[in-house]
Amino acid sequence: MLITVGLTLVGCRIEETKEVEKIGPLHIVVTTGIIKNTLDNIVQSHCEVTALMGPGTDPHIYKPTPGDVELLDEADVIVANGLHLEGKMAEMLEKYGAEKPVIFVADGLSEEDVISTADMDDAKDPHIWFDTKIWMKGMAYVTDELGKIDSSIDSTIHLNYQEYKDEIKKLDKWVAESLDSLNDASRVLVTSHDAFSYFGRRYKMKVKGIQGVSTLSEVGLKEVSEMVDFLIDRKIKSIFTETSTSDKTAQSIVEGCAAKGYQVAIKGPLYSDALGEPDSDAGTYIGMIQANVRTIVEGLK
Ligand code: ZN
Q1: Rounded to the nearest whole angstrom, what is the distance from the C-alpha of residue 118 to the centroid of ligand 1?
Q2: Does 21 lie in the same domain as 166?
Q3: Element counts in the chain: helices (H) and strands (E)
Q4: How much distance in Å is there from the Cα of 192 to the middle of ligand 1?
Q5: HSE-CB of 230 using CA atoms within 13 angstroms
Q6: Same domain, 53 and 164
Q7: Considering its fold, how many domains does the chain have in total?
Q8: Whole-prediction pTM value?
């Protein structure tokens, strides 16, 4: 009889511990550092956010490590960019979607927000973080979804979202003003891969990527020679490298220009698909955009 009571008590205690654990902070596992930093500003200490991809990582070709799979297994919620940015993880994310919430930032966008492109599966450009307004629209959706999953943090994370959005509005204004120091002919951004179309649309810059929207495709001689002619024709002063892609093609374009008697500089790197090191200027979403704009203005002025 006594033994039975004891067991029941132990059983009760175990039940209680489980409940407490469930109320604790959500563990959110995200794909890119850009998502992590934005989300950190929104959830602050109320959730724990871990990113799979670190500084300088190319998300188009990223394959999860066994450690990543462990993190994804243990996550309460997964947040990804979507629009095939995480090209090699698509199937895996779908699989997790059957077990736990998987939120895609891009699911918060409407059709006219998203830029179409011919070179990727699904024909959508995934680099949505370069239009700060669209990025925050996607993040509003993520915030709503997280609030539904844990209603105890719903109002707090919505307040944090608003505060962060105000900061992003200031950033947006600063970017537009900084780029206004360039004359119309100089508002041309040639980069390693086509990551800046959203940036170009928002801030009225012509954008040309050497490698296409995904880094998966190889660059041919024809593309290099067309780019050389374009640069000479437009008298563009600089082209830009990126932290997460190879500089080889940029080098062959400079050589192609030199062979025709035109000097073009390689500037950068620009932060395209990954943040800089955590303690650097580009270690945050806001810092990354600011660092890029400074590099662009300096290179094209
Ligand atoms: Zn990219």
Answers
A1: 14
A2: yes
A3: 10, 8
A4: 10
A5: 18
A6: yes
A7: 2
A8: 0.86
